[in-house]
Amino acid sequence: MSGQGVALGWRPLVDDLLAAGQLVPALDVAVRTERGYFLVQPEKLRLRDEHHRFREWVLKACGAGAVSTVNKAEND
User: 34-45 burial, b if ≥16 CB within 10 A, otherwise e?
Assistant: First the structure.
């Protein structure tokens, strides 16, 4: 990757690369945003074990920044 440009990344996803010196910060400050990703699943569909393992992997990969919530529809 050396010398190939500038990239934007979320800390939980690039921390290992920063620690290994494969990436270097372009700025002395981190820019925080309220944006994020959502992992959505059908409420009334029974999920297979593979789905649960994937969900747990995603949450673990995101580290402390991951928040697991269950939102119910207001009309229920």
Answer: eeeeeeeeeeee
Residue range 26-50: average pLDDT?
80
Q: How confident is the model at residue 75 (pLDDT cuts 50, 70, 90)?
A: very low
Instruction: Inform me whether the pLDDT recorded for 73 exceeds 60.
Output: no
Instruction: Choose among 6, 3, 14: nearest CA to 65.
Output: 14
* Domains identified in the chain, total number: 1
Structural domain includes residue 4: no
User: End-to-end alpha-carbon separation of the chain, Å?
Assistant: 50
